Amino acid sequence: MDEEQAKRLGAFLRARREELGWSSRRLAAECEMNDATIVRIENGQSAATWRKRDKSYRDQEKKRRAANARKREAAAQGMTVAELEERLTVDELAEWGALFEVEAEEHKKAMKDAEAKSKRRR
Q1: Can you list the alpha helix ranges (DSSP code H) found in 21-89?
Q2: CA 72, 73, 75, 81 torsion-angle sign
């Protein structure tokens, strides 16, 4: 999202919040966010936050899909997920462990990069 898009989105969100008669604090509470973050978003100053949230959502979506795949596989074999996981080979478990480590490292690097970029903008 570029700066202009962030400003338009912020203006839209502020207008909608005001239509509802909500304060920025109430919206923040509903969204489980800090009210200062809501104000920054409404002012179009938080595009980086949206990118981080989008990345976090994609990461969670990958995990959800993997969990659903395990559920489908287990159901197809007439087992529970726990039973399926007990029958995984050592190689399969190692592969899953390595995948989660890679994802954790990617997330850590992305957070570090975002923090460095944020500091450069100040």
Answers
A1: 24-31, 35-42, 47-76, 81-87
A2: negative
Band (49; pLDDT cuts 50, 70, 90): low
Q: Count of CB atoms within 10 A of residue 8's CB?
A: 13
Higher pLDDT, residue 93 or 66: 66
Give the SS3 label for residue 2: coil
With a cut of 70, say whether residue 46 has pLDDT above it.
Answer: no
Q: Distance (Å, rounded) from C-alpha 50 to C-alpha 90?
A: 39
CA distance 78 to 97: 25
Nearest residue to 3 (alpha-carbon basis) of 53, 58, 57, 43: 43
Residue with tokens 């990461």: 59
Q: How many CB atoms lie within 10 A of CB 44?
A: 19
